[in-house]
Amino acid sequence: MEDQSHNQPMSASDVDEARDLRNTLLFGGVLTFGLAAMILGTSPRLISLQIPVLETSLTALASAMVTVGGMYGLQMNWPVKTLAWGALIMYTILVSLGVHFTGAPLTPMPVLYLVVVLAASFLLGRRGATLIAGLSVIGYGIVLLVEFNAVLPIVDIWELDFSPQGRGALFVINWLALAIPAVITSQLAGTLAQRLKRSNAELRESERLRDNLTHMIVHDLRNPITAMLGGVDVLLMTMSGIMDAGQLEMLQNARHSGQKLLGLVGEILDINKMEAGKFKLTLSPVNICDLVKRNAEAMRAVTQLEGQNLEIVPCTEPLVIQCDQQLVGRVIDNLLTNALKYTPVDGTITVAVEITAEHTITVSVTDTGPGIPKEYQDYIFEKFGQLTSAGQALKEKRRGTGLGLTFCKMVVESHGGKIWVESELGKGSKFAFTLPISGPMDTLIRATRS
After folding, report:
1. What is the rounded CA–CA span in Å between residue 135 and residue 140?
2. Closest CA to 404 of 267, 289, 270
3. Taking every pair of C-alpha atoms in the chain, what is the biggest distance, in angstroms?
4. Cβ-based neighbour number of residue 73 at 10 Å
């Protein structure tokens, strides 16, 4: 029977720990290359260090194997804590070997112990860092002890006249110079890492509770809003003939506001589903040129009322792609609505579709509005992100919810595409997104299997 434990989704804390371990392994690989560089330094053409090539080469190879093995374990979703313990213990042992083969007290190489202790602080917490610090102190003590007692000869990489047997006090001081910083580092860095993790966990829990509360409130709002809209529709159908113009306008405004509120509820629920990975795409072949043209033409009456010009760049050929027609249509509508909000009278909104790569199409909506400041161009795609300067000053009465572009970003990225904005103050903005012609491969596979 296949082991299902490796297929279970990782929690947010596990993801953070896996990322920290991956960074530690990558840094271990960098140090391995540094050791390899020292081996090259044995060449007379370079520094000409007196380093035993075979022993240091084997140490570097073992370090590389630890890095590769750790990466493989992460790829296979093995327990992060177990991998971290194994990797850090092996790195500590290899640092001890590397310190010996590169001159021990004659070089600054023992500082690598502190690097391993610092990594242990974030991967294993204060207790784990204390144990790794203890292992480092013991390992370095053994190296100095065997060299002082001539069990192993000290590697004199600088060709200095140095006798270990006559430098006992120096060896003790050298050992203390590592032991004290290692213990202090394990306590300070371990405490800091634990506080950061605790704060991160509390923040995540707060966000989870907030999202759950928001989802519950928003979900419960849908039914009363729908009932209210139904009542307004009944009033419009049965009493519009006996109402004066002012009363009819108030009722129509109430209906319009209710529809906007219902749309906001739908956007929040859809975004929550996407964030939770519960929103499924319904893929089908779609002529993207026809979809863009149809949605843009639906906006033409509104642009005419606002005194704006709408230009639709015709496609040179039909472009059929695999996508969720309803969701992509909503993305196009959101971008068009956004352009309509900020385009002044006599301004122009241009919509275009083109093939920009071998298997990619790009849809763009360009306006001649006030433009977007550089510092806001990434922020506007975040949840509830809105402009607070030029765009708001132009049409404050049309201020949105700050969810439209977030929805667009999630839909486009779920299709395997990307969305961005190009803008310059006073010269308008261009919102564009790409979609793969064949559709997102993993979604196609799921659709085929189902």
Report:
1. 9
2. 267
3. 112
4. 20
